[in-house]
Amino acid sequence: MRPIVTLLTDFGTADGYVAEMKGVLLSLAPEATLVDLAHDIPPQDIELARLTLARYWRRFPEGTVHLAVVDPGVGTPRRCMAVESDRRFLVGPDNGVLSPALLLAGARAVGLAVPPSASRTFHGRDVFAPAAAALALGMPLDHLGAPLDAPVMRRTREAVRREDGAVVGEVIAIDRFGNAITNLLGARSGVVAAGGRPVPIRATYADVAAGAPVAISGSSGLLEIAVREGSAAAVLGLARGATVVWYRGQHP
Asked: What is the model's pTM?
């Protein structure tokens, strides 16, 4: 099978930055299959990039190389890294974006040297793309650099159960439909208090009338608050960090 390299960035597609990275990748690993995952991560939004990476990196075949560049610290002393985890590889800055892979037992990370000729503003092209190409060609991880100690780790904050049995969580992301994705795991019945009103938990969006709020267990297993044929972010005023409370029974 041809090697697979995926790309996740906040570069957009209008300015040519992604094209430059692809040019480097294909020049060094011409047999690679390049897969664009997302280039519309909001600028410098490391947290959303981490959550996006967490959804897909293990869905790809073993040996896949995931290149993730959301890098507001480019040109500073922040480190560059490559990771091997669950028989897959990841390349990017040491700022927490690669945390989903690092959290698995057996994950290994090495530091990547920044060549003197590298641009101080474009390590995606000059550091990360060459490393990803080398891994796609079969280079062992240890040949890219020395082991990296204490990489930066980011974790989703866990929901907290109150004494009355209710579970307090928060919105961790808003998707393009305006759905509010929370850190509540396994909530399949009851009511969620969000945006100052009770929202029923149902199996599908169609279980409520058009324009009505509803909470469902999304494809990742996390509870999502939506508005049928609308935007929960707009209707309920939800944003990342907003508090939500899951009641297993009726809302008090």
From this structure: 0.91
Query: In sequence order, what E strands does 1-120 have?
Result: 4-9, 33-38, 65-69, 80-85, 88-93, 108-111
Q: Tell me: domain 160-247, CATH 2.40.30.90, correct?
A: yes
pLDDT band at 214 (very low <50, low <70, confident <90, very high): very high
Burial 185-221 (b: 16+ CB within 10 A, else e): eebeebbbbbbeebbbbbeebeebeeebbbbbbeeee
Given the candidates 3.40.50.10790, 3.30.300.30, 3.30.420.40, 3.30.565.10, the CATH classification of the domain at 4-143 is: 3.40.50.10790
pLDDT in tens, 119-163: 999 999 999 999 999 999 999 999 999 999 999 999 999 999 999
